[in-house]
Amino acid sequence: MKQIYLDNASTTPVRPEVLEAMIPYFSGEFGNPSSIYPLGQRASKAVSQAREDIAALIGAKPQEVFFTSGGSEADNWALKGYARANRKRGTHIITTAIEHHAILHSCEALEREGFQVTYLPVGSDGLVDPQEFESAIREDTILASVMFANNEIGTIEPIARLAQIAKSHGVAFHTDAVQAFAHVPIDVDELGVDMLSASAHKLNGPKGVGMLYVRKGIRLENLIDGGQQERGKRATTENVPGIVGFAKAAQLAFGELEGETARQRELRDHAIRRILTEIPHAKLNGSWESRLANNVNFSFEFIEGEGMLLHLAARGICVSSGSACTSGSLDPSHVLIAIGLPHEIAHGSLRMTLGRDTSLDDVDFAIDSLKATLENLRAMSPLYEDYRNGRYEGILDAWKAKGIAHISE
């Protein structure tokens, strides 16, 4: 059975060129970068070159790039490290209700330490209102963290505007760019961010490696203490193969960014139009305009998401109902609830995220399979039977009558 992988927001396959760059550092060039003999120094040089390469891609200085085990560690370090190092200046933090759990749970941990956190709401399209953001800033606000692009609904936030507002009030600004990194152009000076998190496995690089950009002058407490790796800021022997692979993957992805974005956007819009035209009782979640080029997220009425995913998996189609980090949860997505979806609609959600290997045939096969799956599942739904017999008014029908955008007939 053919496998069609449409869950690239969850993880991506390592590109052959990336694997080729990594292989020497698993065996022949296995040295510890902290060692002074040539084997170790060659490994140290490889790490330094990777740092320079990634810094150049985002307009940063090499000494502002710190390698981590992934995006979650980078997020934890940015929030906990900055809050603890700057506690004397204030104890208030601003974030949003739709952040990744690495941010939300870090904020909850800081609340247990006595910090106060404002969780900003978002609009129905998932966008943060800059005016609401500015209104939330207080005299004791020291840090704001707003994700660059949402991992579930793909909404791209107005990061440059928010960072500008934060700077005007003397507030440090962090963005979780795990989904955006190498999927949209990034220049840290143009954006005005003080910290930025990224992860290699979202851009056809290896798992287990990420980075935190920290602007010069920003003070962070260490999250991991021990040796003097990463200029004394993050202990543990460097993951040399992973770091080399991260840099190679980033160079390839940024180099292909313009063309690949245009190609994926065309496929994305094709999928959205087909679903809105051909599948009844469907709602596009998030903004269509301010959206990652590879993200398609819909909710379907009269459907349970788990059954939908299992039926599609039986046809060889790999998709998700939201963040892979919470796939074991029975609760509806906190992101979909935050944009105003009721539980019964949020539970019937589907996220398809395209990749560099996704073709038009893949998308069409997935949509055809989705149509057949929904027809079968709805045929077994008592609620759908009540709707067809006029005993139940559909939620999405009522929303469409109110003029809410991107709902199918």
How would you explain this protein's 3D organization?
By secondary structure, the protein is α/β, with parallel strands linked by helices. Helix content is 41%, strand content 13%. The protein has helices at 16-22, 38-58, 71-85, 101-112, 130-135, 159-168, 188-191, 240-255, 257-278, 305-314, 334-338, 343-346, 360-379, 382-388, 395-401, and strands at 4-5, 65-68, 92-96, 116-120, 141-145, 172-176, 195-199, 210-214, 282-284, 295-300, 317-318, 349-353. The chain has a seven-stranded mixed beta sheet with strand order 2-8-7-6-5-3-4, with helices on both faces. A three-stranded antiparallel beta sheet has the order 9-10-12. A two-stranded parallel sheet has the order 1-11. The chain is globular and about 75 Å long. It starts with a strand and ends in an 8-residue tail after the last helix.
One letter per element, helices H and strands E, the order comes to EHHEHEHEHEHEHEEHHEEHEHHEHHH
Total number of strands = 12
* Major β-sheet profile: 7 strands, mixed
Q: Which of globular, elongated, flat, extended, rod-shaped describes the shape?
A: globular
Question: Notable features of this structure?
Answer:
single chain, 409 residues, alpha/beta, 7-stranded mixed sheet, 3-stranded antiparallel sheet, 15 helices, 12 strands, 41% helix, 13% strand
Short description:
By secondary structure, the protein is of the alpha/beta class. It contains 15 helices and 12 strands.
Describe the secondary structure blueprint for this structure.
Layout: E1 4-5, H1 16-22, H2 38-58, E2 65-68, H3 71-85, E3 92-96, H4 101-112, E4 116-120, H5 130-135, E5 141-145, H6 159-168, E6 172-176, H7 188-191, E7 195-199, E8 210-214, H8 240-255, H9 257-278, E9 282-284, E10 295-300, H10 305-314, E11 317-318, H11 334-338, H12 343-346, E12 349-353, H13 360-379, H14 382-388, H15 395-401
Parallel strand pairs: 1-11, 3-4, 3-5, 5-6, 6-7
Antiparallel strand pairs: 2-8, 7-8, 9-10, 10-12
Helix pairs in contact: 1-8, 2-8, 3-4, 9-13, 10-13
